[in-house]
């Protein structure tokens, strides 16, 4: 690689890529180069060094605060002892500057030979810098490992090596994975919420109170415009660059940061002269650093656990952080195309499920056609009750005029107007059209899932704050009516007061142990429904509500609440086109879980007719039975369940429905299948008889 080869190199470089190279000027052959995509910010440098090798330092800037540093080296064949001793002094300034550092290239060392003293010395010296050799396969046609990758980063991993026909070396592939910070290229519109004085907020809202329309839709829009206009005066929208975070661990204090710098300085001093005094000082500083890290981590995690004793979500996050601290994260790059693709995928998934049932008759109900107790209208609530409900809601939607804490700061002013709107909505039995629209945030189901597969995304609906207040008001009254009249399945533990996953687990465990104590075989069937909340048939739900006594304005309001809903995917700053919701109960709503539990309640009666125990948590249903019991008609029970689900347009996911047989070996040989399900107990031990 030299100046005369520049035209040939230019032809070889693909479109959209750049090359940075260092030619060999004093000998024939040789030279090193880095080829990279032109959208990536890469900087390179070299330095004068007595090292008998060609080199190039590089930095790959993934964002303003994240840099992958590295050194590319080619060492020609020749004496190796001097290189083994001098390589650490050469790369230590870069290797110690960042934990994200890699050393790679052709070193012409037989690193696979443990009895080679030069290779052993090289590996030991680099290990002192925390660098580990990752390549574990031959990289040369002769079977030697000449092209290593050294790194101390947990985000760098060796992938494989591949044969290239025009060289005697193999191509070495590795992966650098990191959860990057996505920066917006253009300024975003933002308000300084924390700079709004509470007294000034209250006075501005009080001085500009509007006269609300008697039309519910106009009243809902007026509420939004009133709050927005007041906020425009207090905290106008401004184009500001997005602030980013370094994402450093919560336990990493400034004291640890300074002590780490001290250790790096002492290590450089020791590598310069290798004196016993400097080594002793370095060991003491390193020992102090490690002890302080352990103590700080212990204190930090203990405090977080104590603070979140009753917050199961945060407790799970802490356990995940402790058990898998170096998990690879796949990043999502927001774009308009991705938003539209996700919106289309979510919509088609539900419509395809809905259409697969075709035209069917309504399922029969066991409830009386003329209920003894009815609920004809929702009870009006006071401004104080509205205020209390507002303070129980801690989330909103991107289309809200302000965050939920601004609503709560001005609760007694906004509550009086919201109470009037709720009263008019109950009287007219309608739900505002502007509050039927949901913003959907698409999240990866697992951090390591492939973002290119749309099936790995989970839709999270975000509904307006005022809509949640109204839904919570209705939900309290509907829940009281259903509970007082025993219209909910007692075995349902999801989304109910004084119930949780713990009550469901206790119920399942108790049923299993009771059957096993009686010497019976136990079958545990775990039913899985495909998109259960999203396939609720509105016509079936309304018919069932009417038959249980919910009539008049109360039923008309629920009908309005479910109709003409829409959603669109929101990946800041992009939004997809709106899509219509043809079925389902709105996800993210406090009312939807109650409607879903009521919709599923007849299933328990069908199952119990066949002497099968049932425990449910939302759409997760567990059936516990003894398949050898004469009282249990398993096949008929499972058949009735499948038919009821089909009539109610609920899809049984056979691929995820599982069966577990509990008992001794002869008992566990009772094998059965769900209709059209491939699952059965497998890998049973041989019959000892």
Description:
The protein has a six-stranded mixed beta sheet with strand order 3-4-5-6-8-7, covered by helices on one side. Strands 13, 14, 17, 18 and 19 form a five-stranded mixed beta sheet that branches. Strands 20-21-15-23 form a four-stranded antiparallel beta sheet, sandwiched between helices. The chain has 689 residues and is α+β, with helices and mostly antiparallel strands. Helix 10 packs across helix 12. The C terminus is likely disordered. The chain is built from 19 helices and 23 strands. A hairpin with an 8-residue loop joins strand 9 and strand 10. It has four domains: 137 residues, Endonuclease/exonuclease/phosphatase (Deoxyribonuclease I, Chain A), CATH 3.60.10; 42 residues; 70 residues, no CATH class; 333 residues, no CATH class. The chain starts with 5 loop residues before the first helix and ends in a 21-residue tail after the last helix. It comes from Pleurodeles waltl (Iberian ribbed newt).
Label this structure with key terms.
689 residues, alpha+beta, Deoxyribonuclease I, Chain A, 4 domains, six-stranded mixed beta sheet, five-stranded mixed beta sheet, 19 helices, disordered C terminus
Helix content: 25-40%
CA-atom Rg in angstroms: 33 Å
Shape: globular
Order of strands side by side in the largest beta sheet? 3-4-5-6-8-7
């Amino acid at each position: 690689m030299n100046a005369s080869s520049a035209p040939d190199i230019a032809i070889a470089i693909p479109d959209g890529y750049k090359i940075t190279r260092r030619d060999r000027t004093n000998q024939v052959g040789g030279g090193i180069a880095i080829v990279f995509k032109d959208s990536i910010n890469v900087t390179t440098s070299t330095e004068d060094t007595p090292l008998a090798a060609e080199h190039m330092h590089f930095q790959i800037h993934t964002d303003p605060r994240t840099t992958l540093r590295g050194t590319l080296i080619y060492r020609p064949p020749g004496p190796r002892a001097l290189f083994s001793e001098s390589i650490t002094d050469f790369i230590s300034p870069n290797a110690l500057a960042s934990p994200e550092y890699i050393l790679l290239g052709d070193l012409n060392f037989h690193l696979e030979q443990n009895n080679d003293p030069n290779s052993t010395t090289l590996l030991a010296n680099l290990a002192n810098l925390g660098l580990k050799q990752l390549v574990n396969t031959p990289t040369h046609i002769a079977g030697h490992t000449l092209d290593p990758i050294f790194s101390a980063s947990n985000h760098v991993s060796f992938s494989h090596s591949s044969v290239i026909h025009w060289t005697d070396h193999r191509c070495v592939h590795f992966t650098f994975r990191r959860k990057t910070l996505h920066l917006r290229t253009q300024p975003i519109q933002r308000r300084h919420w924390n700079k709004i004085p509470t007294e000034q907020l209250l006075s501005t809202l009080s001085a500009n109170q509007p006269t609300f329309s008697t039309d519910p839709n106009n009243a809902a829009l007026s509420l939004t415009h009133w709050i927005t206009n007041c906020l425009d005066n207090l905290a106008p929208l401004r184009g500001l660059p997005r602030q980013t975070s370094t994402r450093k661990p919560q336990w990493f204090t400034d004291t640890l940061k300074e002590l780490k710098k001290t250790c790096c300085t002492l290590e450089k001093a020791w590598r310069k002269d290798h004196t016993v005094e400097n080594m002793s000082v370095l060991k003491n500083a390193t020992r102090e650093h490690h002890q302080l890290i352990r103590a700080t981590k212990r204190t930090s995690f203990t405090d977080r656990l104590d603070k979140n004793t009753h917050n199961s979500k945060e407790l799970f996050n802490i356990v995940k952080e402790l058990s898998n601290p170096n998990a690879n994260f796949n990043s999502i790059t927001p774009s308009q195309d991705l938003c539209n693709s996700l919106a289309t995928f979510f919509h088609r998934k539900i419509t395809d499920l809905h259409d697969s049932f075709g035209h069917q008759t309504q399922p029969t109900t066991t409830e009386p056609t003329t209920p003894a107790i009815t609920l004809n209208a929702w009870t009006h609530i006071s401004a104080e009750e509205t205020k209390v409900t507002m303070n129980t809601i801690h989330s909103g939607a991107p289309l809200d005029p302000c965050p939920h804490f601004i609503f709560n700061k001005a609760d007694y002013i906004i509550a009086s107007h919201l109470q009037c709107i709720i009263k008019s909505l109950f009287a007219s039995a309608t739900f505002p059209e502007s509050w039927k629209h949901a913003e959907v945030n698409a999240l990866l189901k697992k951090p390591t899932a492939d973002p290119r597969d749309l099936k790995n995304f989970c839709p999270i609906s975000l509904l307006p704050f005022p809509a949640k207040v109204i839904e919570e008001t209705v939900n309290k009254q509907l829940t009281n009516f259903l509970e007082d009249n025993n219209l909910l399945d007692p075995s349902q533990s999801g989304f109910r007061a004084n119930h949780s996953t713990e009550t469901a687990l206790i119920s399942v465990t108790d049923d299993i142990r009771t059957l096993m104590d009686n010497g019976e075989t136990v079958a545990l069937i775990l039913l899985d429904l495909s998109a259960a909340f999203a396939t609720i048939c509105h016509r079936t739900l309304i018919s069932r509500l009417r038959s249980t006594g919910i009539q008049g304005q109360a039923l008309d309001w629920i009908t309005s609440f479910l109709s003409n809903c829409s959603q669109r995917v929101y990946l800041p700053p992009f939004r997809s086109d709106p899509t219509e919701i043809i079925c389902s109960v709105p996800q993210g709503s406090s009312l939807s879980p109650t409607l879903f539990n009521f919709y599923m309640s007849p299933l328990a009666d069908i199952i119990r007719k066949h002497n099968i125990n049932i425990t449910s948590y939302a759409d997760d249903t567990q059936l516990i039975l003894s398949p050898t019991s004469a009282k249990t008609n398993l096949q008929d029970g499972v058949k009735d369940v499948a038919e009821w689900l089909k009539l109610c347009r609920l899809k049984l996911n056979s691929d995820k429905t599982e069966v577990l047989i509990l008992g001794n070996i002869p008992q566990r040989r009772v094998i059965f299948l769900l209709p059209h399900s491939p699952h059965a107990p497998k890998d049973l031990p041989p019959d000892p008889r």
